[in-house]
Write a structure and sequence with these properties.
Radius of gyration of chain A: 22 Å
Distance between the termini of chain B: 69 Å
Strand content of chain B: 5-15%
Number of helices of chain A: 8
Strand order of the largest sheet of chain A: 4-3-6-1-2-5
Oligomer: heterodimer
Order of helices and strands of chain A: EEEEEHEEHEHEHHEHEEEHEEHEEE
Number of strands of chain B: 13
Largest sheet of chain A: 6 strands, antiparallel
Radius of gyration of chain B: 21 Å
Largest sheet of chain B: 6 strands, mixed
Shape of chain A: elongated
Order of helices and strands of chain B: HEHHEEHEHHEHHHHHHHHHEEEEHHEEEE
Strand content of chain A: 25-35%
Number of helices of chain B: 17
Helix content of chain A: 10-25%
Mean pLDDT of chain A: 89
Low-confidence stretches of chain A: 1-23
Number of strands of chain A: 18
Structural class of chain A: alpha/beta
Chain lengths: 335, 404
């Protein structure tokens, strides 16, 4: 037994009882590619070659850039490949610097912190789908179209962008799906004709839309007479993450046992807490199963799980120790 | 592929019957033999490959891409055999069909969503324990506690009506037997299949469910279009099939563990906050769900053995949970152990979606017992009830000494 350890096996050579070493949620940029004008795709893999947590179409990940900025990107790869995430990033000249960093600085071999995946934009069952993408908004819709095919649903894509050359995945989509795909470059054909596509509500169709705010607003306006819940949109609220993510150590006080431990960037809170001798249950250690839910008494968790809804994350009263971290210098946990 | 086959390891062959009564009642000797035989063993009696070591079971569980569930998680291969009922949209489905039902049920059963039940279930548990103790200090712990508590707490939470709840356990017993071969255990229920199925299916309809339960939340999700209205009753059915027997036998495992390990009971009495860990360790130690099958989606190599596409793989969760390569002194029920990572709830995409419900039920019952019971011991031989999938119980004769 080690010190005040509550886990008798901790120091007795029973290392085999620990699950596979805690995977700090850090992935390697294994490929970076220009895929359209102003758009790069990143392929992210586990540094140790491990499987990544499963995801569903519409999921996004939080990417923690080296400066601590956090950006959300939709997964647009193949979920049947468990070993790589793919995201596509548009350079946003008016942005806060995250996309410029990805475009100009990030290199293959670099490491980035990753949270999630989480899905606020799930593909719900339907006989028919109308997918509407504006520019980089194509990314979450890409795996949805693949799945609509697998499910045998009838679907169409209305894809608008500034110019043909700025529209990522345009050629692949046209090649794979032919007439289902309607490409509308603004400089050639003008804006999407939403009145023609959405003017008559179709009760058997779900509309999925992702793109810039004006497009979302226009589609919402065009769908007012559609049945409730027919329209599903993805909205990334810029600034949802206010505090920068820490890449420096922070302290975790275990209120019930009275211990305080330091969590360094290379270990998870779960691991740090266990080293202090507290017995915390876990299972998947990927932020997906919810077993290590712990009550937070003070401080602001930096949530990186796939489980909590936004309002639950905002409540700051619980966290999953296996992947989540701290926004501030200190967390107090009910352990 | 050809090269892989040429270099493939020929797995050891066993003609053992994992579904024989004596094995179902006491599976450990077979589990040990299979673990020692190799990472993959071919079971000639059923023409399936079997995994009994933690490493391979865990790897197969998380790899839904190569080990599918949609062809059935029992011995029957739905590609070639007619299922006895409409397949589950969760357990017996793969992505993408699995996605929407899983998502809806996950939200309904997520830990934050269960907080509202916590106080209620602690109260229910205390009332039950008081009632049992008032009736005397010797009783069948299986019927009086392990069965009684989930049957009071869970159907109410789902929103079932008061009538016919006695059908729940026989239905679950039948459903879990059906994952095995068509042996005498399946035959024993044959005459009740229609009656029980009709009752269970009727409970899954919107009108049968109260306003505030899990069942109605599933129907509400269908109204929002997150599921189809055809899917909603099947998702409710998953709750009723998978949510009762498993918890009952998990709680029985806890009682059995504490009745036979008085020092561990003392430890729990001193630190009742260990209730959750105790349940987890009991699930590891007894593995209420002993086995599940998968079907290979392609020719797939496990530790050099090539398992042909479209064939069944039997995963021994119970054996993995006692693999000495993963657990120190695995046959011991030990509250000081960290049972994290056990596969008693499965792992990966199909990991038990009701696990947080089960944990909450166990925490409520064990906490109430720890407060009122000084000691518990067996007064006779506990009896197992053979089931093709569940490590289940028939009786657990207990004597308790109430706390002063």
């Amino acid at each position: 037994m080690v010190g005040t350890s509550l886990v008798a096996d901790a120091g007795s050579g029973a290392g085999a009882e620990r699950p596979t070493p805690t995977k700090a949620a850090t992935l390697t940029v294994s490929a970076k590619e220009d895929i359209a004008e102003g758009v790069v795709s990143l392929t992210l893999t586990h540094p140790g070659g491990a499987r990544l947590p499963d995801w569903t179409p519409g999921s996004h990940i939080d990417v923690v850039l080296p400066g601590g900025a956090v950006r959300q990107y939709s997964l647009c790869g193949d979920r049947w490949d468990a070993y790589a995430y793919r995201v596509a990033v548009l350079r946003e000249p008016a942005g806060r610097g995250g996309s410029a960093h990805v475009h100009d600085r990030l290199r293959p071999g670099d490491r980035v912190g990753v949270g999630g995946p989480r899905n606020h934009f799930p593909l719900v069952p339907s006989e028919k789908y109308l997918f509407i993408a504006g520019g980089i908004g194509i990314t979450p819709l890409l795996p949805m179209m693949h799945q609509a095919e697998l499910l045998g649903a009838d679907w169409q894509l209305l894809y608008g962008g500034r110019t043909r050359s700025s529209m990522a995945f345009r050629e692949e989509l046209t090649a794979a799906y032919g007439e289902r795909v309607h490409v509308v470059p603004q400089d050639e054909l003008g804006l999407l004709d939403l009145a023609a596509w959405l003017g008559t509500p179709r009760p058997d169709t779900k509309v999925y839309c992702c793109g810039p705010a004006p497009l979302l607003a226009a589609v919402e306006a065009a769908c007012v007479s559609w049945p409730p819940y027919a329209l599903r949109v993805e909205r990334f609220s810029a600034g949802a993450q206010t505090a920068p993510v820490r890449n420096t150590p922070f302290e975790v006080e275990l209120r019930r046992t009275g211990h305080t431990v330091t969590v360094t960037p290379d270990i998870s809170v779960l691991e740090a807490v266990r080293r202090a001798g507290a017995d915390v249950l876990s299972s998947c250690e990927q932020g997906t199963c919810g077993t290590c839910l712990t009550t937070v008494l003070e401080g602001q968790p930096d949530h990186r799980d796939s489980v909590l809804a936004d309002h639950e994350r905002a409540a700051n009263d619980c966290m999953f120790l296996c992947v989540s971290r701290s926004c501030g210098d200190r967390l107090v946990l009910d352990i | 592929m050809t090269e892989a086959l040429e270099r493939a390891v020929v797995p050891p062959v066993s003609d053992a019957d994992p579904f024989a009564h004596e094995v179902l009642v006491e599976p450990e000797p077979l589990h040990q033999a299979l673990r020692e035989a190799g990472p993959v063993v071919y079971l000639s009696r059923y023409d399936v490959h079997a995994l009994a070591r933690y490493e391979q079971v865990h790897a197969a569980l998380v790899d839904w891409q190569h080990f599918e569930s949609g062809s059935g998680v029992g011995l029957a291969n739905f590609r070639h055999e007619e299922p006895w009922r409409t397949p589950s949209l969760l357990l017996e489905a793969d992505p993408p069909r699995h996605d929407a039902p899983r998502r809806v049920l996950r939200e309904v059963l997520a830990p934050p969503a269960l907080r509202r039940l916590r106080e209620t279930w602690h109260t229910v548990a205390e009332e039950l324990v008081d009632q049992v103790l008032a009736g005397g200090t010797e009783f069948d712990g299986f019927a009086a506690l392990a069965e009684a508590f989930p049957l009071r707490a869970f159907p109410d939470a789902v929103g079932l009506g008061p009538d016919g709840r006695e059908h729940l356990l026989p239905y679950g017993n039948m459903a879990f037997n059906a994952f095995g071969p068509r042996n005498d255990l399946v035959a024993a229920d044959a005459h009740r299949v229609a009656e029980l199925s009709v009752w269970v299916n009727a409970q899954c309809e919107r009108e049968a469910l109260s306003e505030d339960g899990f069942g109605r939340q599933i129907w509400d999700a269908a109204d929002r279009g997150d599921l189809t209205h055809e899917q909603a009753p099947l998702v409710v059915r998953s709750l009723l099939t998978a949510g009762v027997d498993t918890t009952v036998h998990g709680l029985a495992a806890c009682l059995y563990a504490f009745a036979t390990h008085p020092e561990e009971w003392r430890r729990l009495r001193e630190r009742p906050e260990l209730a959750r860990a105790a349940f987890e360790e009991a699930v590891r130690w007894q593995s209420p769900v002993q086995t599940f099958f998968r079907t290979a989606t392609t020719d797939v190599a496990i530790a050099g053995t090539v398992i042909p596409a479209d064939t069944k793989i039997l995963m021994f969760l119970g054996a993995a949970n006692r693999d000495p390569a993963r657990w120190h002194d695995p046959d011991r029920f030990d509250l000081t152990r960290d049972p994290s990572g056990h596969v008693g709830f499965g792992m990966g995409l199909h990991q038990c979606i009701g696990q947080h419900v089960a944990r909450l039920e166990a925490e409520a019952l064990l906490t109430a017992l720890a407060r009122r019971v000084e000691r518990m011991e067996l007064t006779g031989t506990p009896h197992r009830h053979p089931n093709n999938t569940l490590r289940s119980w028939a009786s657990l004769p207990l004597r308790v000494q109430p706390a002063a």
